[in-house]
Amino acid sequence: MITLQNDVLLAVEINELGAQLHSIKRRDNGLEYLWQGDARSWGRQAPILFPFVGRLKDDQYEFDHQTYHQGQHGFARDRQFAVVNQDDNQVVLEQRSDDETRQVFPFEFILRVHYQLVAAQLQVSYEVINPADRSLIYAIGAHPGFNMPLTPTGDFNNIKFTVSPAEEYSRIVLEGPYNDSGHPRLIDMTTGFNLDHQLFAHDAIIFKTGGMDFAATLTDLATDHGVTVSTKETQYVGLWSAYPAKANFACIEPWWGIADNVAADGLLLHKQGMSRLAPGASKQYHFSIKPF
Length: 292
Hints:
With about 290 residues, this protein is mostly beta strands.
C-alpha cells in the first residue's frame, strides 16, 4: 500500500492493484471519506476504467475482423501497476500492454496514473501514451466511491447532491446497462437534490457535461462535511450507488467514454465515446477530489 500525506490536511492510501484509491482522510477531523468496500453491495472502492467505460453489448466487440471479449469497465482495475516515481505527497504508477492484454485489446498502450496532494485537495491525472505505429482507440474514466453518510449514525437520505454550474443538464438514460443517448431527458440541477436509494433503481444518473468544467458535491447535512469532485473536459459524469443493496456510499464518476449505445453494432470503429490517439502521442485527463 502506498501512503501520501502532507502537512495541511490530507492522508491518502493507494493500492498498486489497479492503482485504486484505498483511503482518503483529513488529518484535522479523522474522517474516512472513501468507501471501504463491501462484497454485499459493492466490493470495489475507486476503480480506474480502461480501456472501456461501461458495458459492451454481449461483453464483446469487433475490430479488424476479429471478435474480442471484454467485461464491464475494462481490465486496468484488476491488474498491477508499477510505481515509477514517488515522494511524500505524490506518486506516479504505470501499467503497460502485454501478451495478456492483447488477448482482449489488440493495441499497445502505456497508462500512467498521477496522484498529487495539493493543500486540502487530491489531484488526479490519467496519462495515456500510444507507443505504437497505429492509432490507439480507447476510453477512460474514474469511479471513486465515498462514504455517505460520513458517520455511522448518519442517514443516506440526508445527503445533498449539488453541481456547479447549477443549471439544467441533459441526462443520458440507461436502458439496462446500455446508454440511450438518442432520447435524453432534462434534469434541473439549479438547487440539487437529496439522495434516495430509489434514484438508482435504473443504475447511474449520467450528466452530459460535453467537455465543460464541472464540479459535483456530496454534503452530509448532519455534519456539513462532504466531498467535491471537480472535472475538466469530461464528456459525462455519473452519480451512482448500489441498488437494491442500499449501501451507505455514493460514487461521482468522471468519464471520457460511455457504455455501448442501445443501437451499437459491435464494431469498435463505430463505438460511441471512444478516443483516438495518434502514433507516438499522449493525452492527459484530469480531475480532483476535495474532502471538506
